[in-house]
Design goal:
This protein has 448 residues and is mainly alpha-helical. It folds into two domains: 141 residues; 203 residues, no CATH class. 44% of the residues lie in helices and 4% in strands. The chain contains 19 helices and six strands. The strands form three sheets. The protein has a two-stranded antiparallel ribbon. The chain has a two-stranded antiparallel ribbon with strand order 3-4. Strands 5-6 form a two-stranded antiparallel ribbon. Helix 8 packs across helix 12 and helix 17 packs across helix 19. The longest helix has 29 residues.
Length: 448
């Protein structure tokens, strides 16, 4: 009996010692010193060439998209306070203008680079990984220096950021160090010698600064990207960011040219326009950067998608889609769902030619019909597309007032059964109502 108690005591003492050592080790891992504040660099510190390079880096990283307030009263560009809803609570982006009190005006270049590479603020606090430093860590020293030059030469905006709404203990910044220990591997991008320079440039941009996986890769229960499901698609801002790999279900392939057209101009001839959260990427950002960088990203994803091999089947898929587009839309049609579709959609989405006409997206080829859920189809029905979204100058009206949830469900069911070879969606009217609940008000481009 006494010997057994002694063994238990020794075990507990050993466990306590191990726990103490582990705790001290974690604190050592988690601690970063505050870096001294600096005076904002003078305007002439950076050359015009470096500032322009930094502008390109900022555009390819979509900095203004997440660092500009959009809810309530829109805020000044790059002044932060963009509200991000997460499963853990709302997070508000930081002010990255060179304001000394509320922005990063007192940050040295070293402090800025540490934040980008390691996710640690100038004050030594761990940043919440809603800021995708797990991607930015791959950026080169030159790109980070150029980005710093660009940001430090923007107008300083004094704008205090709303506090985050994370519950305790997630609100403790040291908790982010634990997240990093499990999911974050710092380090610059290393070129793959088995691929050419164009592929590596695309990979560097896509996996680093452009952080495509932040939206197109599903996340685990801790909010980290699932490396085993890279680019498999995910839900973002109540839309579905579709797969960027061979799991993309559309019948015609996202070829390198389709990807380039979509990323550069906001519309792909066979797959339609960019809508929702994706729309600003081509229109606000990638349309303003060197064309060769957009080609590089398209080249990289076409390789991931095995596009060259998969596109061998595109001719047959395209012919079938055009046949489906024309079927049942001439002469009497007893199908009431088809009649509803004809009245609401067919005037713009009908294609009689051998291939879709630009500006008339063929729904049989669109991601929205082939995804596991009808979310994106309902979002487009409710929001529409303004002339600034999707294809330049081509608008789709909102059907927020014109179609009920039951109407949207009927159209979705009709298109799924007549334009795809996939199983029917379920609970469509309920899902239509759920998507409608995320639309805060009737869009301004509504004409119905």
């Amino acid at each position: 009996m006494g010997a057994g108690v002694g063994v238990i005591k020794r075990f507990l003492a050993g466990a306590a010692a191990v726990g103490t050592v582990a705790g001290v080790g974690f604190l050592y891992y988690a601690w970063y010193p505050a870096l001294p504040p600096v005076a904002p660099p003078a305007a002439g510190t950076f050359s015009p060439e470096q500032i322009e390079r930094g502008r390109i880096v900022a555009a390819e990283g979509y900095c203004a998209e997440c660092h500009t307030r959009t809810d309530g009263t829109p805020g000044p560009e790059l002044a932060g306070d963009y509200r991000m809803e997460t499963p853990f609570g709302a997070i508000h982006s930081s002010n990255i203008t060179p304001d000394v009190e509320t922005g990063i005006g007192s940050w040295s270049e070293a402090a800025f680079k540490r934040a980008m590479r390691l996710g640690v603020s100038r004050e030594g606090e761990h940043l919440i990984p809603a800021f995708p430093y797990d991607h930015f860590t791959k950026m080169t020293d030159q790109d980070l220096s150029d980005l710093y030059a660009f940001l430090m030469t923007r107008p300083a905006v004094h704008l205090a950021i709303r506090p985050n709404e994370l519950p305790f203990p997630l609100s403790l910044r040291i908790m982010q160090a634990g997240w990093k220990l499990m999911f974050f591997t710092p380090g610059a991008y290393k070129p793959d010698p088995s691929h050419d320079a164009l592929w590596n440039r695309g990979a560097y941009l896509a996996e680093g600064n452009a952080h495509c996986g932040a939206c197109h890769t599903p996340r685990n229960a801790m909010g980290a990207e699932k490396k085993s499901a890279q680019y498999d698609g995910a839900v973002v801002d109540n839309w579905i960011a579709p797969p960027l790999n061979a799991h993309n279900p559309t019948p015609t392939t996202w070829t390198e040219d389709e990807l380039f057209q979509y990323l550069r101009f906001g519309v792909a001839p066979l797959h339609g326009p960019a809508g929702g959260p994706m729309s600003p990427v081509p229109h606000r950002f990638l349309s303003t950067v060197p064309e060769e960088d957009v080609h590089a990203i398209a080249h990289y994803y076409a390789d991931i998608d095995h596009a060259a091999e998969r596109s061998k089947h595109d001719a047959a898929a395209l012919a079938l889609a055009m046949e489906q587009s024309r079927a049942g839309l001439t002469g009497p049609n007893p199908d009431p769902d088809a009649k509803l579709y004809q009245g609401a959609c067919a005037a713009c989405h009908y294609n009689a030619a051998p291939s879709p006409i630009l500006g008339r997206p063929d729904l049989a080829l669109n991601n929205a019909l082939w995804l596991d859920e009808p979310t994106n189809l309902f979002q487009v029905m409710l929001h529409g597309l303004s002339a600034e979204e999707g294809q330049s100058g081509v608008a789709m009206p909102s059907f927020y007032n014109a179609l009920s949830d039951a109407d949207m469900a009927r159209i979705a069911a009709y298109l799924r059964r007549t334009r795809t070879t996939l199983p029917p969606w379920t609970d469509l009217e309920k899902k239509a109502a759920a998507v409608r609940s995320t639309v805060q008000s009737v869009p301004v481009n509504s004409s119905h």
